[in-house]
Amino acid sequence: MKREIAKYVSECDVCQKVKADHLKPAGMLQPLAIPSWKWEDIHMDFIVGLPRTQKGYDSIWVIIDRLTKSAHFIPVKTIYHAKTYAELYIARIVSLHSEFAYNNSYQKSLEMAPFEALYGDHVYLRVSLMKGCEREVGTKIHRPFKITEQCGPIAYRIELPPQLAAVYDVFHVSQLKKCLRVPEEVVDTSQIQIEPDLTYEENPIKILDQKQRTTRRTKINFYKVQWSNHSEEEATWEQEEYLQTKYPGFLLTTANEYV
Fold first, then answer.
1. Of 182, 181, 202, whose CA–CA distance to 192 is shortest?
2. DSSP state, 117?
3. CATH top class, domain 204-258
4. What ranges do the domains of the chain cover?
5. Could you tell me the superkingdom of the organism this chain comes from (predicted)?
């Protein structure tokens, strides 16, 4: 039972939206992958401010292979443009180290990463999509959205509703939170009218079950009622007398349908 209770609490939709995380955002720092072959991945830097040579060179372009740590030091000028550097790279680096290759080796992805998410999974969105006062006082995490595509190692495209068509649908993993259980029914809280005393009106919408309890003198009818803004799992048992007094037309229109 302890395990079932812990699982139920961890999958609570409200808790997943409101409870603060005590971990650093995932995906902010990504280690560089180890190159599989020499001169496949390089680093480069510039040493500038050097005395000008007779040929006009005043800088050194440093290109280092990440795998072997071997380096090339190419004299350059600060007035060079990108096209000149590209021609130099081909002439001084590609001509020496390049070779035809076909990468057909299996690339094992990160397993059990904190921000792991797969196509078809659902995630919560940490970015506030509201404006004005609602942005400040509303929940910071919104209802689950479906992942449709992985855009790079740490970004995902999610399926947004039509009313959010103007929002860019690609988000960094630090703005996503894995959804442990997708709620069967998601209530649109924007349609609920909040009263000044922070309450809202609820109305019965459906009868799910019926039972009768017999006392010494009378029989009392009970109805299992589903309320507006609530799912069937949150239905409550109410006395027939209470429903007739509080919602006089409800039983007349729904009791026959249930029967």
1. 202
2. -
3. mainly beta
4. 2-23+114-183, 42-97, 204-258
5. Eukaryota
pTM beyond 0.70: no
> Which class for 158: exposed (0-12), middle (13-18), buried (19 or more C-beta within 10 A)?
buried
Q: Say if residue 186's pLDDT is above 90.
A: no
Report the distance separating Cα 160 and Cα 176, nearest Å: 13
* Buried-exposed string 22-44: b where 16+ CB fall within 10 A, e elsewhere: eeebbbeeeeeeeeeeebeebee
CA–CA separation, 72 and 62 (whole Å): 6
Contact 75, 60 (CB under 8 A): yes
Single out the residue of 76, 80, 66, 6 nearest to residue 36, CA to CA. 66
At 50-86, the pLDDT tens digits run: 999 999 999 999 999 988 898 999 999 999 999 999 9
**The domains spanning 2-23+114-183 and 204-258 adopt the same CATH topology:** no
pLDDT at position 247 is 85
User: Which pair of tokens denotes residue 146?
Assistant: 């479906």
Structure tokens at 1: 């039972």
Q: pLDDT digit string (tens) for 24-52?
A: 766 677 778 888 888 888 899 999 999 99
Instruction: Report the amino acid identity of residue 241.
Output: E
Residue 103: what pLDDT?
Answer: 36
Which CATH number is 2-23+114-183 given? 2.30.30
